[in-house]
C-alpha cells in the first residue's frame, strides 16, 4: 500500500480566499424565512379532502344502485 505524502500537498491560495469570503449568513437567511408569510390565495379545502369527498360520493352512488337493484 502506498502512503500519502502530506509534505507535497498544496492548496490553491485563490481557492482558500474564495471559500473564506463566501461564508453564508445563516442568521440573516433564517430571519427572512421566519418573516415569510403564507400566500394569501390559499382558502378552501385541501386536495386530499376533496378527493375523500369524491370517493365517498362514488361509494354512496354504487351502494344506492346495488340497493335499488335488490328491490
Describe the structure.
The chain has 71 residues and is an all-alpha fold. Helices cover 61% and strands 0% of the residues. The N and C termini lie far apart (86 Å). The model has no long low-confidence stretch (mean pLDDT 76).
The low-confidence parts are none
Q: In this structure, how is the largest beta sheet organized?
A: none
Radius of gyration: 32 Å
Strand segment tally: 0
Element string (H = helix, E = strand): HHH
In whole angstroms, the N-to-C terminal distance is 86 Å
Q: With helices defined by DSSP (H or I, 4 residues minimum), what is the helix count?
A: 3
> Per DSSP, what share of the residues sits in E-state strands of 2 or more residues?
under 5%
Shape descriptor: elongated
Q: Structural class given helices, strands, pairing?
A: mainly alpha
Mean pLDDT: 76
Level of helix content?
Answer: 55-70%
Amino acid at each position: 500500500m502506498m502512503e500519502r505524502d502530506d509534505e507535497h500537498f498544496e492548496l490553491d491560495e485563490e481557492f482558500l480566499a474564495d471559500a473564506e469570503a463566501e461564508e453564508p449568513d445563516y442568521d440573516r437567511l433564517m430571519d427572512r424565512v421566519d418573516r415569510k408569510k403564507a400566500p394569501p390565495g390559499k382558502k378552501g379545502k385541501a386536495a386530499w379532502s376533496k378527493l375523500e369527498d369524491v370517493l365517498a360520493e362514488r361509494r354512496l352512488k354504487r351502494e344506492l344502485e346495488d340497493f335499488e337493484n335488490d328491490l
